[in-house]
Design a protein that fits this description.
Structural class: alpha+beta
Number of helices: 5
Mean pLDDT: 81
Largest sheet: 4 strands, antiparallel
CATH superfamily of the largest domain: Ribosomal protein S6/Translation elongation factor EF1B
Number of domains: 3
CATH class of the largest domain: Alpha Beta
Low-confidence stretches: none
Radius of gyration: 40 Å
Shape: elongated
Length: 224
């Protein structure tokens, strides 16, 4: 009977211990699960906060840009509607000094590298002044320049060229004045003049410029 009594008490103790172990295990599980869940929720909440912050920044930038549009449009209309352009010509005319200010600005610094267009312009200037054109040379670097991107603040890029012409003294003087007063900048590098009894041979090394247009660079940003 004593053995039976001891065995019964032992069983009760074992059951009690098993219950305690189960309770402890359950408590540990709940605690670990709660910690893991809390960390996941905290991480998710932090991510959502960063997303909201970025969206608010984008919204603020957009609102600022929209507010600037009206002012920019008004300034542009004033800029192109002046009765006389910035070089004293007629905005509606077709002469060398004519054209609205927007066109003059674009002609002064084209946004694309176009060496054939430059040689065509030079040829017209020379033909209009009755020059005999011996050569118009330069390096057509269009392939390399096509990779230029207008990111950040674009800067003018050189376009070197050389012309060799024959004409009268007055024509040469007129040509140099045209280059000096041109709305497109020309930077003289070397000037060689050979004269005979009736004509002057002029070799003119110079460079002009173009400036890549500033691109609208819209980026997708990963928020981590």
């Amino acid at each position: 009977m004593a053995k039976a009594h001891i065995s019964s008490k032992r069983i009760k103790i074992d059951k009690a211990q098993a219950t305690v172990v189960g309770i402890i295990a359950g408590a540990v599980f709940v605690t670990v699960f709660s910690l893991v869940s809390a960390k996941a929720l905290w991480t998710q909440n932090s991510y959502q906060v960063r997303i909201i912050d970025k969206k608010q920044d984008a919204r603020d930038n957009l609102e600022s840009n929209l507010q600037s549009v009206e002012g920019l449009q008004a300034a542009y209309k004033i800029f192109v509607s002046t009765p006389t352009n910035v070089i004293g010509g007629n905005p509606a005319g077709t002469g060398e000094k004519d054209g609205d200010n927007a066109r003059i600005t674009l002609d002064a610094l084209p946004s694309k590298y176009d060496f054939p267009a430059l040689t065509t312009s030079l040829e017209k200037i020379l033909v209009d002044r009755k020059f005999k054109i011996d050569s118009i040379t330069g390096i057509d670097d269009e392939l390399a320049q096509s990779t230029q991107k207008g990111e950040g603040s674009p800067v003018p890029i050189e376009m070197p060229f050389q012309i060799s012409v024959t004409g009268s003294y007055s024509s040469v003087q007129d040509l140099l004045t045209v280059f000096e007063k041109s709305i497109r900048p020309f930077n003289a590098q070397k000037l060689v003049i050979k004269a005979d009894a009736s004509n002057i041979q002029l070799t003119f090394d110079a460079k002009t410029y173009y400036q890549p247009e500033k691109g609208l660079n819209i980026k997708l940003e990963d928020v981590k």
